[in-house]
């Protein structure tokens, strides 16, 4: 991941330093800000050199959603190619969906291990050099209406269905959103994919879940 420039924006100094330390070990070049206004000015001036912005949604004076909206307005002509990963303290589906509409590429719950954040960054930035045991496995995040569930592994998908492994059982007919870069490319969208759970098959230590795309459900 050498050469990838990351800007971290979070008013919590301790958490910012924690993320920065973790990502530096992975080979990222880090620029950290606890003041969103200073981060905003830096990105406006250096946006073309930034590869990734990690942005906290809950900040005083200028929250993450306001930050994204204002940034988009200011950079409407230059349109830098950086990705945005938003940080959240809570399972707020509406807030996360709004962040995606404003240009976010991924989200991360602060209660999760930082290893999951690193995996997500490598996935949505499509970096193939990350030393994973099996690079063909795609770990994704899945949002349920009332909760966010993590550590899902995409198995297969086609024009009608999505199959994935889980460690948790989901209710039949529950509505979920799957945030997978491969699946979004397949469906030709930048938004998470809405699906309905058709079947849950309990295996040894995980559960095989079959979903149908919501836009194709009867």
From TrEMBL:
| Entry keyword set | Phosphoprotein
Kindly indicate whether the keyword Signal belongs to this entry. Answer: no
Which PANTHER family does the protein's record reference? RESPONSE REGULATORY DOMAIN-CONTAINING PROTEIN, STRESS RESPONSE REGULATOR PROTEIN 1
Residue positions, PTM 4-aspartylphosphate? 56
Annotated Response regulatory domain residues:
5-125
Biological process terms in GO annotation: phosphorelay signal transduction system
What is the name listed in the Swiss-Prot or TrEMBL entry for this protein?
Response regulator
């Amino acid at each position: 991941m050498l050469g990838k420039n990351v800007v971290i924006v979070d008013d919590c100094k301790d958490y910012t330093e924690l993320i920065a330390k973790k990502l530096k070990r992975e080979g990222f070049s880090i620029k950290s800000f606890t003041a969103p206004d200073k981060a905003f000015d830096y990105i406006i001036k250096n946006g073309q050199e930034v590869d990734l912005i990690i942005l906290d949604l809950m900040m005083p004076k200028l929250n993450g959603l306001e930050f994204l909206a204002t940034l988009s307005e200011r950079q409407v002509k230059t349109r830098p190619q950086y990705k945005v990963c938003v940080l959240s303290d809570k399972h707020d589906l509406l807030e996360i969906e709004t962040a995606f509409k404003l240009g976010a590429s991924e989200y991360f719950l602060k209660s999760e291990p930082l290893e999951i954040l690193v995996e997500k960054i490598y996935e949505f930035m499509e970096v193939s050099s990350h030393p994973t045991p099996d690079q063909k496995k795609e770990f994704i995040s899945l949002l349920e209406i009332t909760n966010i569930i993590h550590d899902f592994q995409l198995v297969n998908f086609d024009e009608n269905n999505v199959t994935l492994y889980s460690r948790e059982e989901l209710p039949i007919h529950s509505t979920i959103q799957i945030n997978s870069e491969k699946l979004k490319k397949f469906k030709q969208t930048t938004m998470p994919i809405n699906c309905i759970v058709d079947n849950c098959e309990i295996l040894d230590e995980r559960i095989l879940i079959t979903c149908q795309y919501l836009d194709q459900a009867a």
